[in-house]
Amino acid sequence: MILAVLLLFSGCANIVDFGAYTKGTEVTQAQMDLLTINKSKKSDVERIIGYPQRKSSVGKTEIWYYDFTKIRHIGSNIDESSVFEFNKKGILTKKYKTNGSNNSNPLTGK
């Protein structure tokens, strides 16, 4: 019995949180790394990540948002937005993550 418990907890770092609630599009660091500032285009972002949930414009800058929320049974929750900014030619000028998406849920601390 004790051996079984020890074996169970020895692999905790690799446990997948089955049944976690997710909403939106998760953008991984690997995906972010595939996109290059002043080189990648809107079509590259769409091909690698998919179509954004939200878009906005500020002056000549178009901004794409990929919101993601994950409420886990084990560990801390995730609530973030991955943001991509493009110039008027459709070239990526900025990419970053922010804490908090537009997903309103009390379990994420909002």
Report on this model:
The protein is of the alpha+beta class. The protein has a domain at 36-100: Beta-lactamase Inhibitory Protein, Chain:B, domain 1, CATH 3.30.1450. It has helices at residues 2-10, 29-34, 42-48, and strands at 21-24, 54-58, 61-71, 78-86, 92-99. Strands 1, 2, 3, 4 and 5 form a five-stranded antiparallel β-sheet that branches. The radius of gyration is 18 Å and the shape is elongated.
Uncertain segments are 3-8
For this structure, what is the CATH class of the domain at 36-100? Alpha Beta
**CATH fold assignment of the domain at 36-100:** Beta-lactamase Inhibitory Protein, Chain:B, domain 1
Number of strands: 5
Q: Residue-averaged pLDDT, rounded?
A: 84
Largest sheet, in brief, is:
5 strands, antiparallel
**SSE succession:** HEHHEEEE
* Percent of sequence in beta strands: 25-35%
* C-alpha geometry: elongated
**Oligomeric state of shown chains:** single chain
CATH architecture of the domain at 36-100: 2-Layer Sandwich
How many DSSP helices? 3
Q: Supply Rg.
A: 18 Å
Query: Structural class given helices, strands, pairing?
Result: alpha+beta
What separation lies between the terminal Cα atoms?
41 Å
Q: What is the helix fraction of residues, given as a range?
A: 10-25%
